[in-house]
Automatic annotation (TrEMBL):
Top-level division of the source organism's lineage: Bacteria
Adenylosuccinate lyase C-terminal domain mapped to chain residues: 363-436
Record lineage: Bacteria, Pseudomonadati, Pseudomonadota, Alphaproteobacteria, Rhodobacterales
The species this protein was found in: Acidimangrovimonas pyrenivorans
Protein name: Adenylosuccinate lyase family protein
Similarity comment: family membership: Belongs to the class-II fumarase/aspartase family.
Pfam families given in the database record: Lyase_1 (PF00206)
Record SMART domains: ADSL_C (SM00998)
Length: 446
């Protein structure tokens, strides 16, 4: 097993996400950092912090220069940050020392790396948002189509009372709608530039520092935080929490699908399945299992990022390094989970025959609660519960269906109709249709 299965040549089709993965390569990071350096020079040139002619040269050159990330490895291994090596390599490549001297003027490594990270997180979150919307749309259509399709509701792994498949689908989709709402709320807090200088004071830029930061934000399409966030990582931590929350919701979807495709239940058909090396009959629920695994992995990665939010003093290299090792994996795992969930949402199909068979099996004991409430109209509730509990025991002992025993004990009522699954769905169909309406009304990402 490779150290990072997310970009493994062998495991990339299982764990990897090519679209999001392109944002977290060495090349992507170098390009993003050079974009920040070029925008910083342009902002400083326009405000007279550095010569305007040098600013124009640097802005253009940072878009054109090619820096090999591998060439930065030795110095990065020594410095722990890659920006000193990048700045040195870029100055050398430009072959214009009179202009190159102004590259990275008054900034610090964390300014460049954090802002470059935010640029890539912006794109990654856009990918996640687009997949979320399409997934919710597909789930909404499924919920609408099966709002009144009865199935067994389960608690503690046991049959409880009837529900509808549409309501189950809504339970998968409603949290995803809330995650979309949370994403819109966190974006303004997260998508900000970092420009604070060595100890967060912007001292090297003098009085022009705040103006430079505001102009840098404008040029990059980000917000100006108005202060340093070198050691205040609440925005990053909030983003990590959001990613972990999405993964957890997808993990719930995965867990339910593993259960519903289980041998002996088989109430859901998956669009695809995995094979076994030795058992020809196996069609394993690989995609749902992957969602569960990614959700559990996200818990640990998120814990690392939350712990890394405890920064020491004005800058903390130790906490920052933990963030580097955890956040990209969390982003890519969540993106992969969303791609898997989207394929499932568009391809899963309920096996209504099996759902009905399960409901009709078990001697009809799934209707015990409904029977007790119907009887409670004629007798005190405790007596009704005791009577039904005794009847359930008799059903198990004699193999007689609950509705048949009820007809013998309390004749004159069509208990078969009263205890039909369709009569016991409660608010399940309404919840399914309400979710479907919300899903259909979602705005599409631009």
């Amino acid at each position: 097993m490779p150290a990072s299965p997310l970009d493994s040549a062998m495991f990339r089709e299982l764990f990897g996400d090519a679209e999001a993965g392109r944002l977290f390569t060495d090349t992507a990071e170098v390009r993003a950092m050079l974009l920040v350096e070029g925008a910083l020079a342009k902002a400083q040139g326009g405000l007279g912090v550095i010569p305007e002619v040098s600013a124009a040269f640097l802005h253009r050159a940072c878009h054109e220069v090619q820096i090999d990330p591998a060439g930065l490895a030795a110095q990065t291994g020594n410095d722990a940050v890659c920006v000193p090596a990048l700045v040195a390599a870029t100055r050398k490549a430009l072959e214009a020392p009179e202009h190159a001297q102004y590259l990275h003027w008054g900034a610090t490594s964390q300014d460049i790396m954090d802002t470059a990270l935010i640029l890539r997180l912006r794109q990654a979150l856009a990918i996640c948002e687009a997949r979320l919307v399409v997934t919710v749309t597909a789930l909404g259509q499924l919920a609408q189509a099966h709002a009144g399709t009865p199935m067994t509701g389960r608690t503690y792994g046991q049959a409880a009372t009837p529900t509808s498949f549409g309501a189950v689908v809504a339970s998968w989709g409603m949290p995803l709608i809330r995650h979309l709402e949370r994403l819109n709320e966190l974006r303004p807090r997260l998508l900000t530039v970092s420009l604070s200088g060595a100890a967060g004071t912007l001292g090297a830029m003098g009085e022009k520092g705040p103006e430079v930061r505001a102009e840098l934000a404008r040029l990059l399409g980000l917000a100006d935080p108005g202060a340093s966030w070198h050691a205040t990582r609440d925005g990053i931590a909030e983003c990590a929490g959001w990613l972990a929350g999405v993964s957890a919701t997808l993990g719930k979807l995965g867990e339910d699908l593993v259960t519903l495709t289980q041998s002996g239940i088989e109430e859901i058909a998956l669009p695809t399945g995995g094979g076994s090396s030795t058992m020809p009959q196996k069609v394993n629920p690989v995609a749902p299992s992957l969602l569960v695994a990614l959700a559990r992995q996200a818990v640990g990665l998120n814990a690392n990022v939350q712990g890394a939010a405890v920064h020491q003093a004005q800058r903390d290299a130790t906490a920052w390094l933990v963030e580097w090792m955890s956040l990209p994996q969390l982003v890519l795992g969540t993106a992969r989970g969303l791609a898997v969930a989207l394929a499932l949402a568009e391809g899963i199909a309920p096996r209504t025959d099996r759902m009905l068979e399960t409901l009709e099996g078990g001697l009809g004991l799934i209707h015990a609660e409904a029977l007790s409430f119907l009887l409670a109209r004629e007798m005190p509730r405790p007596e009704a519960q005791a009577a039904v509990k005794a009847l359930a025991k008799e059903a198990r002992a004699t193999g007689t269906p609950l509705a048949e025993l009820a007809a013998q004990r309390w004749p004159g009522t069509d208990w078969a109709a009263a205890l039909a699954p369709e009569a016991q769905l409660g608010q399940a169909p309404a919840e399914a249709r309400a979710f479907a309406a919300m899903a259909a009304a979602l705005p599409r990402p631009s």
